[in-house]
């Protein structure tokens, strides 16, 4: 299967080819045609599976550039993800004369309002800023054709359910709705089905996030020795770029303080850090100016960063899906990745659940302190 067979225009294919994208990923293969045909979709696909292009390509094809109406809205939970989708959309803009607006917190609202005087075809937004525009009547969604709810599970987890419903209320009842989520739990399905018409369900097997290219290891330690064990592993591995995951913002803060005092090149990322600062941190990490990014799941959700060679799970994730989601940030695009999980005795049951899901026992790594 190639993009031509999916009826993607030669102009868009040429842009994809220049970016080294020649073959559609499974989520793109399954989603592009039904989206082009105007069908509602509820898709389970994690970051790194190519889901952004899975909806951007057919939606850009369907936009009528001669119309002045806002035709497509992509709603996403975090500013980082909005920026990432906007960058992808802007790369595809050369294929068609369309106007794109990114509406997220921290961006100057007056310049956004000025830009809105031009005819905007596609909006990529976070809930708070979009509602601000709707309340000011500076954004009119009454002629909207397609609504994309991206990272739906995270949207609900972060408490945006009311905002999403208010935004939905400002759109026409008759529209195409696409719901993309890393996990398809009952809360996501309930929200989606309330507003969708006969949606097509698409699920990408977890294995297709391909764990084959990721070497996984476990360090059995105690909570008291965990910091020293982590530092020993970091010194032995000396990774090019690594993300260290912690369970809570407080754990991130504490670990960053410890690693700083031990002279590691690291910065932290969580939702209490102001948006503009988070953007600067992400830029530094993408540019490989920082070796270690210490983050919570929420902050790192949807960040597709190339070049991450190592993932360290300082705290065991709350679910198996989170574990797969975290480690799927390495071993991308044919590269091999490495991930190390630190557990203490109380985590053994959760580890067993992870091993049962992935189908093998994870190799133990000995760390001599």
UniProtKB/TrEMBL annotation:
Keywords: ATP-binding, Helicase, Hydrolase, Nucleotide-binding. GO terms for cellular component: cytosol. The keyword Nucleotide-binding applies. It comes from the Bacteria. A motif (Q motif) lies at residues 1-29. Belongs to the DEAD box helicase family. This is Superfamily II DNA and RNA helicase. It comes from Clostridium saccharoperbutylacetonicum N1-4(HMT). The lineage of its organism: Bacteria, Bacillati, Bacillota, Clostridia, Eubacteriales.
């Amino acid at each position: 299967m190639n993009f031509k067979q999916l009826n993607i225009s030669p102009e868009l294919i040429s842009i994809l080819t220049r970016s080294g994208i020649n073959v559609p990923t499974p989520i793109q293969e399954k989603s592009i045609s039904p989206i082009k045909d105007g069908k509602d979709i509820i898709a389970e696909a994690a970051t790194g599976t190519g889901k952004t292009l899975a909806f951007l390509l057919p939606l850009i094809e369907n936009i009528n550039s001669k119309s002045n109406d806002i035709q497509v809205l992509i709603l996403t939970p975090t500013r980082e993800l909005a920026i990432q989708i906007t960058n992808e959309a802007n790369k595809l803009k050369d294929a068609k004369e369309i106007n794109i607006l990114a509406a997220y917190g921290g961006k100057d609202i007056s310049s956004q309002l000025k830009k809105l005087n031009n005819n905007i075809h596609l909006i990529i937004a976070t809930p708070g800023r979009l509602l601000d525009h709707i309340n000011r009547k500076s954004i009119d969604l009454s002629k909207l054709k397609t609504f994309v709810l991206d990272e739906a599970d995270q949207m609900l987890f972060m408490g945006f359910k009311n905002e999403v419903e208010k935004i939905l209320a400002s759109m026409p009842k008759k529209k195409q709705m696409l719901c993309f989520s890393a996990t398809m739990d009952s809360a996501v399905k309930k929200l989606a089905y309330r507003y969708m018409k006969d949606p097509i369900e698409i699920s990408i097997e977890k294995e297709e996030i391909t764990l084959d290219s990721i070497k996984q290891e476990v360090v059995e330690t105690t909570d008291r020795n965990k910091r020293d064990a982590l530092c020993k592993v970091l010194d032995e591995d000396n990774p090019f770029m690594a993300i260290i995951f912690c369970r809570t913002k407080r754990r991130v803060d504490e670990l960053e303080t410890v690693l700083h005092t031990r002279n590691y090149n690291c910065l932290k990322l969580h939702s209490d850090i102001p948006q503009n600062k988070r953007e600067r941190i992400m830029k530094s990490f993408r540019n490989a100016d920082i070796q270690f990014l210490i983050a919570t799941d929420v902050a790192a959700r949807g960040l597709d960063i190339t070049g991450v060679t190592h993932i360290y799970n300082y705290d065991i994730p709350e679910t198996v899906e989170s574990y797969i989601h975290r480690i799927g940030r390495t071993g991308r695009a044919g590269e091999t990745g490495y991930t190390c999980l630190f557990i203490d005795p109380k985590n053994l049951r959760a580890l067993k659940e992870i091993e049962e899901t992935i189908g093998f026992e994870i190799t133990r790594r000995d760390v001599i302190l």
